[in-house]
Design brief:
Elements lengths: L1 E6 L20 H16 L6 E4 L3 H14 L4 E3 L9 H8 L8 E5 L3 H10 L3 H5 L6 E5 L11 E6 L5
Parallel strand pairs: 1-4, 2-3, 2-4
Antiparallel strand pairs: 1-5, 5-6
Amino acid sequence: MEMYLMRHGEAVPRSEWEGSDSSRPLSKEGKADLERAARGMARGDCSFELILCSPYQRAKETATLVASCRGQGDVLSLPDLAAGARPDAIQGALNPYLGKAPFLIVGHIPDLALFAARLTGKMDLWEGGLAPGEVVALETGSPGLSWGQGTILWRRKLEEW
């Protein structure tokens, strides 16, 4: 089973945001970078029909930008993908959607990096993290999500699209 993990785009810095962290949006530059990358994703080797995302504003904006550039509207916000999600919670949140793979998951760091590291057994994913907007393609090797059984197919930063 194939899936794509994407860190949300560059957000407004915390020091410049007075609201809650969950409502912190993408920065102007973050939106512009994501729009360029999303157009590249639509032309590239990133094929999915469903986007699952964190309920945080910056993740929802990222998912919506990607969906609109691809001409699709299936974006589902899942509370279990909020910032601070542990790998087991992410795994549980994805279970109802495994039959709809491949799909894109838009979330946060270190959550997605730790989840990818657990799936693949490659701890350098967790240690190095993911840049804003970076996408990692994974093959889990089965219809389920078994820890340590996955493989990294590729990684791409925003500027590489």
